[in-house]
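Supplementary notes (optional reading)

For those who missed the lab, this is the record we used. Protein: NUDIX hydrolase. Length: 147 residues.
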Amino acid sequence: MNNQAVEAEIKRAVSIAILHSDGKFLMQLRDDIPGIAYPGHWGFFGGHVEPGESPEEAMERELFEEISYIPPTITKFGEYEDSQVIRHVYHAPLIVDLQELVLQEGWDMGLLTLEDIRRGSCFSQKAGKEQPLGRPHQQILLDFIKK
C-alpha cells in the first residue's frame, strides 16, 4: 500500500452545512472544551460521516441531531481536503426563525453577517464576548459568498 492510500484511509470524512437566510449565515459556537477541533470557535453545523452513510445523509442526520432542522433542499457546494479531514460542504436555505431551532450541541448559535465573516469573529451572548471563526470555516464561507 502506498503512502497516499494509507493517508486516504486515516482521513476522516465530515459533512458540514452552510445554512443561509437573508444574507446571513447560521453558525454554531463550538464548546470551549480542550481536545475538540476548534474549541470556542464559530463553525458550521455538521459532523462525521458514519460507515455506510453518504455525506448527504450524514448532513441531514447531523442537522436534525444538532438543531432539530430539516432543510427543504440541500445542495452540494464542494469538498475541502487537508491532511486530516475531507469536508463535504453543502448549503441549504434556513426557512425558520432562530427561535424555532433547538440547539442540542455547542455553546451558542447565531446568524453571522458578511462583516462578521470578513472580520473573522462574532459576538456571542452566551460567551459574553467576541469569539473567532474557525479558519477553514471562514475560508469556505468567503468562497461561497464569491460564487
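If you only remember one thing from this example: The chain has a mean pLDDT of 93.
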